[in-house]
Design goal:
The protein has 360 residues and is of the alpha/beta class. 42% of the residues lie in helices and 15% in strands. The chain is globular and about 60 Å long. Helix 1 crosses helix 13 and helix 5 packs parallel to helix 6. The relative contact order is 0.14. It is built from 13 helices and twelve strands.
Amino acid sequence: MSGWDSWRGRRVFITGHTGFKGSWMALWLTQLGATVCGYALEPPSQPNLFEVARVSERILDIRADICDLSRLKTAMMDFSPDVVFHMAAQALVRRSYIEPASTYAANVMGTVNVLEAVRSTPSVRAVVCITTDKCYENREWPWGYREVDRLGGYDPYSNSKACAELVCAAYRNSFFLPEELSVHEVAVATARAGNVIGGGDWATDRLIPDLLRGVLAGESVRIRYPHAIRPWQHVLEPLRGYLMLAERLLQRDPEFASAWNFGPNDQDAKPVEWIVGQLSQLWPGGMSWQIEDGAHVHEATYLKLDCSKAHNSLGWRPALSISNALQLIVDWSQHWQTGGDMQRFTLEQIAQYRDLCPAR
């Protein structure tokens, strides 16, 4: 089997399945016929996609801390997965300034624990550890960062994700060497994605969730960094990249056991102010917003990814324009607002997205 059919009957272990990206991934995998076990803390917000879309109905749902190595090992060994997607993280820049120690604990030691659990689980054949585009040492370059560029990270969140990349590289070199894949049979890759957006994101201190909360509450939203440029992309775009990458890892090709960027086309790396204006046009009745004055914690002004490696080696390219991605968010949010069945609607959006993608 190849392509989407290859997931039918697969056993997949997802850390962070109660989060925004993890919930979309869990639903997609079950739609493809995989058996999914999720391991995570409670959902990070109220409301949240995990509960709104009733994800627990379709998977084995384990609530536990990624920092609890013994519990994690037991859960992974008991489930015996073929594939592990490590998505659990403290993922907010501003929160990392308030809680730096717990951010490093979750993002660095959490990654160590996942890889230790993989070492104890003989069934695992492919591991994709999700980090972030912010793991690079940001020099405000006008061109995209490549996988070989220097890691860094200014703030605790970004730096902790750079550390997670180094952890994965060290474990790969020490225990899962690609050149010896036929011996140990475990292929480990990392994936660095841009600013993901999509229906069902209620996280704090994220642009689009803040805007949607404001419009539903009839309030004006304060916008920080209006000129900051980000690699915006619908959540399904990088998730498709993660799935395609895992498929190649399962084929035991050592070339794919490495780091990968998944970002939008160059023309879709837009300033914050453009995103706000476009979303306001798409939302019936518009949105009210204003620029927030005063000092803010440091965030990069310009950040873009070079995804040539994924384009040329994986055959992955974005299928949605940023305008289409924003329309999907508006559609999802309005369906939820009117009391729709959000599990069914989310699965429908996944199916529609798959139809837009090149045949595989």
